[in-house]
Amino acid sequence: xxxxxxxxxxxxxxxxxxxxxxxxxxxxxxxxxxxxxxxxxxxxxxxxxxxxxxxxxxxxxxxxxxxxxxxxxxxxxxxxxxxxxxxxxxxxxxxxxxxxxxxxxxxxxxxxxxxxxxxxxxxxxxxxxxxxxxxxxxxxxxxxxxxxxxxxxxxxxxxxxxxxxxxxxxxxxxxxxxxxxxxxxxxxxxxxxxxxxxxxxxxxxxxxxxxxxxxxxxxxxxxxxxxxxxxxxxxxxxxxxxxxxxxxxxxxxxxxxxxxxxxxxxxxxxxxxxxxxxxxxxxxxxxxxxxxxxxxxxxxxxxxxxxxxxxxxxxxxxxxxxxxxxxxxxxxxxxxxxxxxxxxxxxxxxxxxxxxxxxxxxxxxxxxxxxxxxxxxxxxxxxxxxxxxxxxxxxxxxxxxxxxxxxxxxxxxxxxxxxxxxxxxxxxxxxxxxxxxxxxxxxxxxxxxxxxxxxxxxxxxxxxxxxxxxxxxxxxxxxxxxxxxxxxxxxxx
Amino acid sequence: xxxxxxxxxxxxxxxxxxxxxxxxxxxxxxxxxxxxxxxxxxxxxxxxxxxxxxxxxxxxxxxxxxxxxxxxxxxxxxxxxxxxxxxxxxxxxxxxxxxxxxxxxxxxxxxxxxxxxxxxxxxxxxxxxxxxxxxxxxxxxxxxxxxxxxxxxxxxxxxxxxxxxxxxxxxxxxxxxxxxxxxxxxxxxxxxxxxxxxxxxxxxxxxxxxxxxxxxxxxxxxxxxxxxxxxxxxxxxxxxxxxxxxxxxxxxxxxxxxxx
Lengths: 493, 260
Known about the structure:
- Chain A: Keywords: Nucleus, Repeat, WD repeat.
- Chain A: Pfam families: WD40 (PF00400).
- Chain A: One of its GO terms (cellular component) is nucleolus.
- Chain A: InterPro entries: WD40/YVTN_repeat-like_dom_sf, WD40_PAC1, WD40_repeat_CS, WD40_repeat_dom_sf, WD40_rpt.
- The complex is a heterodimer of chains A (about 500) and B (about 260).
- Chain A folds into 2 domains: about 15-100, Roll (Ubiquitin-like (UB roll)); about 110-490, Methylamine Dehydrogenase, Chain H, CATH 2.130.10.
- Chain A has 4 helices and 38 strands.
- In chain A, strand 37 and strand 38 form a beta hairpin.
- Chain B is an alpha+beta fold and about 260 residues long.
- Among the domains of chain B are: about 5-55, no CATH class; about 155-260, Thrombin, subunit H, CATH 2.40.10.310.
- Chain B is built from 7 helices and 10 strands.
- In chain B, a hairpin with a 5-residue loop joins strand 1 (about 135-140) and strand 2.
- The chains are: A mainly beta (about 500), B alpha+beta (about 260).
- The interface between A and B is medium-sized, with 41 and 22 residues.
């Protein structure tokens, strides 16, 4: 163990030694308590921690960057800054360490291209999981694919007869599903731009949300869940092109559906409940009741990992012809890493201005009720590492919450109109939000340092009208945004 | 039987040879004759006849239009994609245009200054004393008539004890005392049965409010802890105002609309 020569006679500040204990986020202790200087920096703490981890498990990862927290306060420069120096003598300081992502995503600053092409407002935009393709759905009933290397239109896919409301990439990135306001779902191939199979029609009203089965459960990406205003969720077998199962039970429109990593379906609805269903037989597991008004959005802590599929963050994408089993295995590794042996957490945002944090796999009662917004909550996203939660609301603010306990962290103020959507960068340090005031704003969460009112790092103006959709590519290079002015904009560093 | 001779004759001897032609020509004349009748009738008969004729004309128009539509083969598929595309989260939401928002804000400020409150039923007919109370006779020879019995629905608080009967002027019968109300949330369009907390204001007079009389238009306070509403700071809202929308003494239940 590394202990420093503590000079007990010298009582002013930095040279004092204190007893510290390193604790991981889940509460496990890294080793026995030891002494450290009050003036030790983050690098010193890391060295100490590495030494403890060598003793405990025989190896340590030199590359990992850590963030240290003492009693919820982040250690920004040195330990002295995070603790109250007068009261440390008797106590054992518990320092929580959080490994951070290795790669850093650079903040986006400029709009590299405005892509016209749609003749009506762009309603949704999404990057494929391997960041090779970009697709957008619009109010002119067309789905467009865009070439990212030249930043030009690639294919225009016509097949829908009404506004294309949602699009969703399959986790292997080989197909795109799009749903329209008439309740039809079409599947497209991104390379050729052609429709795969016939349109899937069964819903009687518009489709509100699409969710593919995660890759680690289903290596050929067969099942797709669609939620609709007609109060049902339909599971489609996309290879055969037929309905696999119809899940009905909600009393009003289903607004969101999410496919969990343990083959559970989570649906949020306007009847104020969130229901948990088993995907293999469609049985209702739990009804989560807490909200007082419509449930607008749902988010899972492992959402980002399941979206990525087999693409591990920061590592090169698998080759195009890789066998399915290998993809499945990689996806499983990504999922397990994101889950870190804890139950999945679900957050629901509602019109009653609150969010609720649940662990739907285990418990019917909520973990926490997150209040503070002054208007309805429109969009909720977990950060890719699952530690933070961002909620966008019509009260022109974005709020940050702790992803595990639901404790309020910070308000991001800066927008002058309703905030519609948020998107995290792949390293969980940056956040971009789109708003009805036609701007996007970039926020730096990694450098927040415990402040609870943050200002945007970058203002990304340029759109002529409200921005309806925003997405950050999983490799962290680009941000795509589309809105009412019918143009899709690509932003880069 | 006396009335079958025409039919019997027709069956035995058949009809006239020109029967069918006469029939056809008679029917052809009907149109002309009906319009002549419509033109020349006067008085009450004319009114009744014209009414019938109008109804028939409307029905005929409808069937003709239905036939037209079927003929032109207009199907939903061929309709154009409508304008004003909105993303999923904005569908079913009433979005006000920006100009309207500003004018609404101004109107709201003016109303607040004038002290008017936004209630669903602003004006209610006042219930007179004769309607709400019935005089009860008391005394040895039943001559005294200073007691009154309330004939409307009332609400009494939990710890309520009557005044000594000798001194009680207003009697609230237990049969007309209610503890719950059916409250509708105006945005959710769902109705809940919520316990009453009190009568806030009866529009007729403050006497009615203090007695707890509930009539149409009364503002009552209900316990909404079941609904799960939360304030900004996280505290659970447990009391809200609602306005009564029916006449509870006639219906036997209190229906109210929540004032959000």
